[in-house]
Amino acid sequence: MAKYVIIGNSTAAVNCVEAIRSLDKEGDILLLSDESHFTYGRPLISYLLYGKTDFEHMKYRPDDWYTANNAQLKAGVKAVKIDPKKKKVELSTGEKIPYEKLLVATGSRPFVPPMSGLERVKDQYSFMTLDDALKIEKDFKKEDDALIIGAGLIGLKCLEGILGRVKAVTVVDMANRILPSILDEEGSAVVQKYLEGKGVKFFLGDSAAEFTGEHAVTMKSGKKLTFDKLVLAVGVRPNVEFVQEAGGACNRGIVTDEGQRTTLPDVYAAGDCALSHDIAADTDRILALLPNAAFQGRTAGLNMAGGSAVFDKAVPMNAMGLFDLHMITAGVYEGECYEEKGDSKYKKLFFANDRLKGFILIGDVARAGIYTSLLRNQTPLSEVDFAMLEKSPALAAFPPAYRKEKLTQKV
Amino acid sequence: MKRIYVNEQWCLGCHLCEYECAFANSGMTDMAKALKGKEIHPNIRVEDGTDGIHFAVNCRHCSDPICVRSCIAGALSRTEDGMVQIDKSKCVGCFTCVLVCPYGAIMPDADGHAAQKCELCTRNLCGEPNCVKHCPNRAIVYEDRG
Amino acid sequence: MDMFIYPEYEVVRNPDLCIGCRVCERQCANEVHHYDFDLKKMVADSTKCVNCHRCVCLCPTHALKIVKSQDTYKTNANWENQTINEVYRQAATGGVLLSSMGNPKPFPIYWDKILLNASQVTNPPIDPLREPMETTVYLGRQKCEVVRDGSGKLKNTLAPQLKLNMPIMFSAMSYGSISYNAHEALARAATELGTYYNTGEGGLHKDFYQYGPNTIVQVASGRFGVFKDYLDTGAAIEIKMGQGAKPGIGGHLPGKKISADVSATRMIPQGVDAISPAPHHDIYSIEDLRQLIYSLKESTAYKKPVIVKVAAVHNVAAIASGIARSGADIIAIDGFRGGTGAAPTRIRDNVGIPIELALASVDSRLREEGIRDNVSIVVGGSIRSSADVVKAIALGADACYIATAAVLAMGCHLCRTCNVGKCNWGIATQVPELVKRLNPDVAAERLVNLVTAWNHEIQEIMGGMGINSIEALRGNRLMLRGVGLNETELKILGIRHAGESL
Asked: Which residue of A163, A268, A339, C248 is 20 to 30 Å from B57, comparing CA positions?
């Protein structure tokens, strides 16, 4: 019997395994995955299409990782149910797998809102998994017109991946701007303009009213669009059902404490399925970003193996590039704002109550982590030379004692 | 493990370390040939603060490196003895590491397509960190401090 | 810059090697270099260059060199370029010319006209790696009287002594003339080596009291920083009567070098020139000197040797004879090539006599008068190598003082502009950004290396002569021969000419 069972085989799962192994070299670990691949960096699927990587290089860990960590992967199986009383996970095959400690790292799935006539569209794609990307890679042709519904992170990373593979790409979104989850309005406009310069067409503040044929859609505005390939990137839903059905607390995501424990005994949750406490906004929400999954997975793993770890520094944060335009953002965009705008620079720092609340950097992203650390550590701005930090991130703005601690000893 | 430590009391802000780093990682044997007329992209950067404060910053090789945890590609990893290394062939240049490094010690490389960081001159022919070797005032040292 | 004067040195940059890193620009306190954004290259203004070589040393591609300007006036053996320029300079300013470090003029260097002996056949050389070789030296009055207590036991009447692991000490350089970091380096090096450094006339910074057992504290005519704790802290007290670089005049530390720390250490106001009078106003005779010596001894319970330092001047032998009778334990003699942080050029270059001659005449005189054991003799100004040390000891010294060699070890390039206070090597300056250029860890290590190396060489040279202790070498002038010296010189030095046997 495996001591540790992990549902999932991605970021949270892998970091959980490594954390367990840092404390417990012996206890058997079993990973259950409905994907059949070696663990891979999920956000890399767009880079695969973009041509920046290939499957060999997408592997999230070295080839000998499972054996080196003495972890067994059961791939291509789907867990369907948890029995927290008997401490068993049931697979779709009916097989029941007992656990001592269970991690639910089930991630999320694409969410497709009801759209009239969508069933008429044969060539529709989602963009979540390696298999999705491989399908797109195989199917999308040079002469195709592609339509992406959704101008969020997934939609636009897909755009980057496919723009060079097809004749043209059109992006539509119900929202009136792109990347609303990571940019403010002005920032959205900057990036949109940049993408339009690459030949991308946007229809924003508009949505599909009806798919009128296999390759045609009529928009709410009345505009008619045609396409060869349709990508649905409207949103995602966390996979919380296992826990919910077993009686665990869920609320737009699996509820956990700071040690990633769900309300079910010996059941932990981490990654895109689990809620985080966003310290920048002081609210619980899903932070579907890879570092967060890693931190949560690690915290869960340490606790599953008898340690006592807490993860209490969750903030929304994002680094992404679109055709060499890089942007790094974090936190919430509230409070006073320091801004710098130039030809190749867009920078906004938001602060309130002596704390940095959030920031947006487009173009020049150098040393952004210094800002992120202010956010994550909730550093009082009165303790640093914020006037200096406004100009550029620098450790010189911190007190000498901080530098002494960080630069003259092991950290 | 030996790491690079800086002592701002003795840093003169001469920026030689930046050039020595760039040279060390240029793969060339002649400094003038390697750096003349070029913009340099060193892994170590000197900050020039107010009141004559200067200090160099490069990778701290953290014991719990947030960049390694955050890397979306598994391109960053920690060697057995604790050095944080980057596999550039895996790096896709998303710069999540830049987003999280609290020291600003990992950065886009010259062409901006991948991240670069200090690997203690283990990947070049210097043998020991070239910034340390050429610091004129021992403001950068290579020591085992735990 | 004076329009009459062409720069003496020129900065030459090899454009093929310059990578535009601007290290020269950042490191030059004289602002010689700058990057020209229009020309897109580094340029230099040679008129500001003092030839300190900071840029040359730090240039990573060795693209820089400083060369002596070839510009010249009409050749004239009497009116040399420098002589003419000095006239121009004074005509422009009306001021006394100031210089630093030692006399650079081509006077004879007697060390280089003296050769050492070695053992052959009749007496074997000694291999210092295999056999003991004693370089320890005790400084102080050696003469003892036999005194017994009531029970007939011998009483120790030996005067207080300084124990040196090698016959080399760091001579006086004040905090003020040199930087805090330079002082710290000297103090730490002296401690590690088992020898002494000297505060000079600037008092002792409170941070350096910890090095007291290896510190000689100086009492000079300005009495800067002198108080009870200061005297108690030092291992010995030196009364500075004169200095080789500027005999007959006092020190002058410009107000801009009197920082808050220097002012606290010297116990004088900040920013105001610190002027040491030419004489000690309480000393006009050997008797007066004796009073000061005993005042100092009295206030330190007769536990510390007292050194009297004089410049090598014409009557040095007679003066030394007086000092030896005044109660002093050690006489320090400073030759006319001794360094300084600032001195009037004419004084530096024209006053005093060579240390070799001064030493020989003092040692001879004290021996003749039977008072050589009253005192130890320490000589400085200028001792440039271990060979100079060995020759000095054979001429009669107990130990040597080094300072120019010490600052060279710390990075000084003898640009001789200490008086300006913008030392690019962080030694002769109080400007914080410049002071920090001298990391005492590095400087102390280099000082220790230098003296350790010299001590090895001293052992080797002594071994070659078949001598196994400094004691046996001291005053052993038979180990010396002169070359190219006239009768008078040989007579003063008390040595034979090379080729003359016993």
From this structure: A339
B-chain CB neighbours of C52 within 8 Å are none
Q: Which residues of B touch C18 (CB under 8 A)?
A: 32, 36
Helix or strand (DSSP H, E) at A369: helix A368-376
Q: Are residues C85 and C168 in the same domain?
A: no
Domains of chain A are 4-107+239-304 (3.50.50.60), 111-236 (3.50.50.60), 324-407 (3.30.390)
What stretch of H or E contains B18? helix B16-24
Contact: A406, B60; criterion CB under 8 Å: yes
Contact C399, C366 (CB under 8 A): no
Note whether residue C430 is domain-resident: yes
- Which of C95, C111, C126 terminates a domain? The answer is C95
Band the pLDDT of C453: cuts 50, 70, 90: very high
For C165-202, letters b (16+ CB in 10 Å) and e give ebbbbbbbbbbbbbbbbbbbbbbbbbbbbebbbbbbbb
Instruction: Give the tens place of pLDDT for each residue, C120-169.
Output: 998 899 999 999 999 999 999 998 889 999 999 999 999 999 999 999 99
The answer, as to whether pTM is greater than 0.90, is yes
Give the tokens for residue A367. Answer: 């040393």
Burial per residue of C446-466, b for 16 or more beta-carbon CB atoms within 10 angstroms, e otherwise: bbbebbeebbbbbbbbbbbbb
Instruction: For residue range C355-414, list pLDDT tens digits in order.
Output: 999 999 999 999 999 999 999 999 999 999 999 999 999 999 999 999 999 999 999 999
Number of domains making up chain C: 2
- pLDDT at position C1, please? 58
| Upstream peptide bond of A276 is cis (omega within 30 degrees of 0) | no
- The span from the CA of B125 to the CA of B122, in Å, is 8
Instruction: Please report the domains of chain B, with CATH numbers, ordered by start residue.
Output: 1-58+119-146 (3.30.70), 59-117 (3.30.70.20)
Domain housing C226: 137-142+163-475
List subunits contacting chain C, requiring 3 or more Cβ pairs under 8 Å.
Answer: B
Q: Is residue C105 part of a domain?
A: no
Same domain, C422 and C273: yes
Nearest to B19 by CA among B36, B2, B5: B36
The answer to whether residues A4 and A30 touch, using CB atoms and an 8 Å cutoff, is yes
Taking the Cβ of residue A308 and every Cβ of chain B, the question of whether any pair is shorter than 8 Å is answered with: no
Helix ranges restricted to H, C154-301:
180-193, 228-233, 260-266, 286-299
